Every structure is written in C-alpha cells, then in structure tokens.
Amino acid sequence: MPDPGVAAGPSFAVAPDPTPPGLVRRALVTGRHLSALLAGAFVASVDAARADPARRGSGFWLRRVCALLLRPVIARRLRHEPFPVQFRRRLELLGPTYIKLGQILSLREDILPREITTELKRLLDRLPAVPCERLARIVERDLGAPPAQLFARVDPEPLGSASIAQTHRATTLDGHEVILKVVKPGIRGTLERDAVLLRVVGSLLQLLLPRYQPRRVIAEFCDYTLREVDLQREADNAETFAANFSDLPDVVFPPIYRQYSSRNVLCMAFLDGTKPSDPAAQALTEDERDRLIDLGAASIIRMLYRDGFFHADLHPATFWCCRARSAGSSISAWWAASTRSCGARCSTTTTASSSATPRTPPASWLPWPSPHRAPTWSASAARWRTPRAAGHAAPPSTRSRWPA
Questions:
Q1: N or C: which end of the chain has fewer CB within 10 A?
Q2: Is 313 a residue of the active site?
Q3: Out of 155, 250, 307, 313, which one is annotated catalytic?
Q4: How far is it, in rounded angstroms, from Cα 85 to Cα 106?
Q5: pTM for the predicted model, two decimal places
Q6: Domain limits, the chain
Q7: Helix, strand or coil for residue 248?
C-alpha cells in the first residue's frame, strides 16, 4: 500500500478539513453564499451585456452601476469567472447537501441552459478529494485494522470523488481487484444540520406556495440524502439488484466484499468499462449500441414493473459500458444506494432506494423474463404492445399505456 500521507493526486483538488460549524453558523454561511451567488449572477449578466450591445436594453447604465457596487461581494477568485463556474463553486463550498442539488440540476437540460448543466456535471464525480491519511483513519476505525493489513495495495489517486464519498482502486491480500468507497469525514454531521435548515425553509415556503408542497419535497430530499451516508444499506441494495438480475448475464452488478465493508466503508469488485458519455463509447459499433440500448430499456422496465426496486439516479457517472467476455457488450451498474419505503427512488453511485414490500405484478405481464417476446411500439395506439403467449391474459390497460 502506498504511503497514506500521499495527497489525493493531481487531477483532484484536495478537500479542506474545516471544523464542522454549528447550526447558527451554518445558517449564516449558507445565507452568505446564496447572496453572493445572486450577486454573481447579476454581475455576470451585466458583463455579458457589455460584450453584446444587443442585450443591453433600457437602464443598462443603472445596472452597470449596481454591478460595480455588488462586485466586492463576490470572492476575488470567483469575480471574473463565468456564472456557471461560480454556481458550481458555490455549491461545492456549501457542501454535500447543495452538491446533491447541483447533481440533480445537472441532468435537467430541459429547464437549464447547456452551459450550466455541463459545468454542474463536474459535481457528479470530480469534486475535491480527501487525502489518503484521513480516509485511512476511517477505514481503520470501521474495519478494526489499518488498510496496510487488509489490502495489498490501495491507489492514492481517487477514481471518483462525489458529494458524500470517494472511491479508490485496491487489491485484496488474495489478489482480487476491488473498489473502496469511503464516506468523507464530517459529511454526516453537515447533512444533518443542512436537513434542519432546509426543513425550516420548507415550512416557510409551504405558507407561500402550498400548491407545490415544498415542505414535502424538501423532506423527501433530506430523507434520501441522509440515507445515502449508510453504506451498509447500499451494500444490501447492491446484493438485491444482483439477485434480481441473476438471470441476465449481460447486466452486471459488482459483488460486495462484506468482510471489508461497514457503515462508512464499502468494498466491491472492480469492473472495467467506460462511461456512456466518454468518447470511447462512441467507438462502439451500431450493433453494440443497439444491444446496450435494448439491455438498458429491458433493465429499467424490469425494475419498474417486475421488481418495484429500481435505480433512480441513472447518469453517466453511475454506470459503465463494459466489454463482455463473450461477443457483444454488457451494462454494469456502479453505485451508492439508499433506501426509502415508497419504492420511487433508487441509485448507483450516489443514491438508491427501494420498496419495503416490492410489488409483484401478475405473471401474465412481467416484462422479462416472461413468456412474451420483447414489446413493440405502436405509434397509432401510442402504447407499448407486448405479444402474448397462448394462455396468458392481456396486460391491464392502465399498465400498458406509455406516454408518446
């Protein structure tokens, strides 16, 4: 194993080690960052108007004076950055709860400009990393022995660093290649304080916008975010996924090494592959791409309609396209799972959830495996039509309708 004092590597900034703030201080810091973010947005809009006279409009000089007054509010290192960079950096400085919000927004290209979502995608797995020496203390405390006694080697360079945990490649003493996922120090306390503050905000918004149920939305967000910190729950979900897909060899979930796992440490088998967003994925043949699309669609339908236990955070940082040992390609999920009882959310590198009592639909309309062939799309009927084997009843119409 490398020297545990080695810092996180050149491709990752090193995360600071601040003293966890109290609730009041956390509220003040959050308010300061959000105010500075609004000021940065205003100043960035004025700067853009200065570069493009067509965007100035009436009152431009007044806005320019206001921008000059607001500019000192913005941190010097962010003052001349474009707004998407300022937005991402502010979320990073605010910590894991707000980083999680940024991760959700990074997928919403339907409501946010491409420049912002592209920058926010850096929050998925390229956040500042914790140095190895701090992670080694967590591993030793949870597993009862220092990493050097448990692993032949641990790579000091992280594979990924997200809001709650970071991952490193390692080799067990018996030669197995694995991934170590370790919860970052201080994260749990920060999440708990942020949850209190957000619930207060949700109660205030409920008085102003009761139609949108902000208190319920925020409570749900806090709930599943706090559950992500428990990696034992994630290990349970990983094994449930593996059992649910045991009959589909081309959909792979990495096996869990329970002897090296705990509430703050998760050890899973290493799977080599590429993200769907990587240029290497574009080199796949058309047949391989079609195969991957079929596998992905079949997996999602199975999770939703057969298992009631599904991955709800599918983005390019949470699953890999792996070259199968046989011809063709396979999909493998890469995760961090938390569970909640409604069965509406679940994930892989960042959040997963499941139903406490998984639904089991009638065998006559289970997606896969089933007596049916694969479903086909009927544009005229605007629904999926599944050919039925003899002796099987038609699926209920409420289950077969899909949006166009």
A1: C
A2: yes
A3: 313
A4: 13
A5: 0.70
A6: 23-123, 132-183, 187-227, 271-360
A7: coil
